[in-house]
Amino acid sequence: MTHSAERNRVGVIGGGLGGLAAACVLAARGYAVTVFEKSAWLGGKAAVLEGAGFRFDMGPTILTVPSVLRRIFAEADRRLEDYLDLIRLDPQWRCFFTDGTSLDLVENVDAMAGALDAYAPASAAGYRRFHALSERLHRISDRHFFWKPIGSIRDMIDWRTGFSAQLMGDVLAMRMGRSVASTVRKFVPDPRVAQMLDHFTQYVGSCPESSPAVLCGIAHMQTTEGVWYPRGGTRAVPDALVTLGEELGVEFRTETGIKRVLTWGGASRVCGVETESGEVIDLAAVVSNADSARTHRELLQDAAPAAAKRFENRRGYEPACSGVVLYLGLNRSYDHLLHHGFVFSKDPHEEFDFIYKRGEPAPDPTCYLASTARTEPETAPPGGDALYVLVHAPYLRPHHDWERMLPAYRNVIINKLKTTGQMPDIESRIVYESALTPQDIHDRYRVLNGAIYGLASHGKWNGAFKPSNRSPDVRGLYLAGGAAHPGPGMPMVLMSGWIAADALDRDKIAPKGSEHPTPPTQKPQPVPV
Ligand SMILES: Cc1cc2nc3c(=O)[nH]c(=O)nc-3n(C[C@H](O)[C@H](O)[C@H](O)COP(=O)(O)OP(=O)(O)OC[C@H]3O[C@@H](n4cnc5c(N)ncnc54)[C@H](O)[C@@H]3O)c2cc1C
């Protein structure tokens, strides 16, 4: 066992987007930071897959709310535009329905309402009213929920001033006790338009029928800030953060899994980490970007069992949904697709019932498509397309054997693309194929039961709340990532990293600078998988 005394350093466990954001913000504020990542690449789920001349983003493909990234770069007085080339996509999604029709979601609310006038007239005025509610919910989230280490509704209240009239109004407007699905349908009677609007909750891997109405605010976030494609793929986001981190002196240690978080003072305070190879590193504080439940169950269980128990007793931790991704290298492109598309199920209630209640893959699933070659032709050989197909699936249950289940489910997905997706010849056009299953997601990213999006947002009253970024159980432990506040999806995990870093900074728990400066290591290259 080796021992490194780096008492002034802050350690970040995990180099996903949340961990990278936390590391950059901490370094920008003057802390010495080391990121420990078990994999050979940085960026976690924002990984890349290359084969036979095709390039796919393996995980996230839809980038929204770029102002969060901008704020992280601004911490270091940098401009995001100098690190990342973002391309705005409008229309944002093309939606295909089982009745053979399609509908584009466009950014401009008047243009969208105009399109609905022709497509589903009874829903046009309702869409405007839904959008007004969405704006109000977004503003409420901005005021009380975002950019702060919130763990429950209690943390939203400033106890010195108590309930202000504005807070009371905001809490009432949150429509607590109502779901996304019921709120959407109150405004929009057309089942196809409602199905489209339901799908904002798929960004957080949760069932619209069980998720709190406040998540309707996501629609306004998307219409005001747009949908973006980073040139070079979503992979360019972690690359940009790693470049920034290197410039700020962050040390990146890839292929370094953390086995344990170490504590002292009767397990009340973090004092370091132990790597899987037995190296003990003294640290002033730790940000864990690993799944929050697994952090407590696996990394803290030995050193601070009472703290791990308190975390466990606070609430239930239900994993968000998982997914199956097909990466299809095609020798043709399809003119009827846009960059982003949804090929919808016939019956969303039945689909969500399978995924979220029965815990089985939906027999008639919704497929989310990214056809990147139309925006960046270099992602496929000339004339072809790198088609990414994501189908949400239940989080892993003990009886799920995806090696056995994948071949049949792959055919279900291909058939859906042939029919509702209007690509009858797709199977014969595949010249390269790879897949990612819930088991692969579980093993690659060390998540909870293969969850793509951390913890589910289920619960009409408190479903939006996740574990706070400042651990109430162990001093010096901070949480960032999809299983911490404010939740999953690229903008939210980036924000979680900022909040964790900001809370650490406010707590003044670590001295700035390092008495034992370590030169930054070479930039690790993403590995092809
Ligand atoms: C298929 C798919 C599609 C998606 N689509 C979208 C989308 O279109 N838009 C969107 O916004 N979001 C999307 N998401 C969600 C988004 O990717 C995630 O919310 C986000 O990337 C998660 O970031 P994170 O910070 O939580 O960390 P993760 O990406 O989960 O990274 C955590 C890192 O911690 C490391 N780690 C874990 N334990 C340890 C340990 N003990 N020691 C060292 N390292 C450890 C892991 O190896 C991993 O690299 C998608 C995800 C997937 C998988």
From TrEMBL:
EC main group: oxidoreductase
Pathway of action: Carotenoid biosynthesis
Sequence segments annotated as region (Disordered): 507-529
Keyword Oxidoreductase: yes
GO MF term set: oxidoreductase activity
Pfam families, A to Z: Amino_oxidase
Domain Amine oxidase: 17-504
Stored NCBIfam families: crtI_fam
EC numbers for this chain: 1.14.99.44
Protein name, per record: Diapolycopene oxygenase
PROSITE patterns on file: PROKAR_LIPOPROTEIN
Signal sequence, renumbered to the chain: none
